[in-house]
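Fold this: Centrosomin N-terminal motif 1 domain-containing protein
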Amino acid sequence: MTLKEQSSTIDRLSKENFDLKMRIHFLNEALNRRSEEGIKEMISENVELKSDKLKLQKESQNLKRKVRELEKQLKDQQSDKESMVNHDADGSEDEDRDTAQDEEILFLRERMETYELEIERLRSENIVRESEKRRLAEMVKSLSDGRGDGRSMGSDVGAREERVSPPPFCEQLLLSHLC
């Protein structure tokens, strides 16, 4: 090998070494931000969001059912009212009842819409959290895969990579929740 080839090889290796050191640095920062407590908190929050979503969906279904029943009652009353002759002196009482039911239907529709919006918000948060979990699992997997390669080189990078590697419980915790 000529001196020029050796110099270019050294330059290439030093650039590669620097790139690896930077990668290790940023991965180490990312792992520090995603500690065991952070992962557990994220998982528990995800479980809470899923249970809230199910509760809201069930309540939304109940509200939809009640709206349908009230609309049916309203239609029945209107058809009864049309069939009756206006000889009844208590017609104002029926109108009051109709107005109250109309207001209740309107209120329930508004409430149902707010629940549907809340369900959509929870769905989108859930999607974001799921993608974050997958990304973390891939990062943990890539770090654990890369751990063996750094040791075989026997370099300073291998020793640093060993410090960056996630604890086994993080990897198991993430993988168990992804399945």
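Residues 3-85+93-178 form one domain. The chain has a mean pLDDT of 78.
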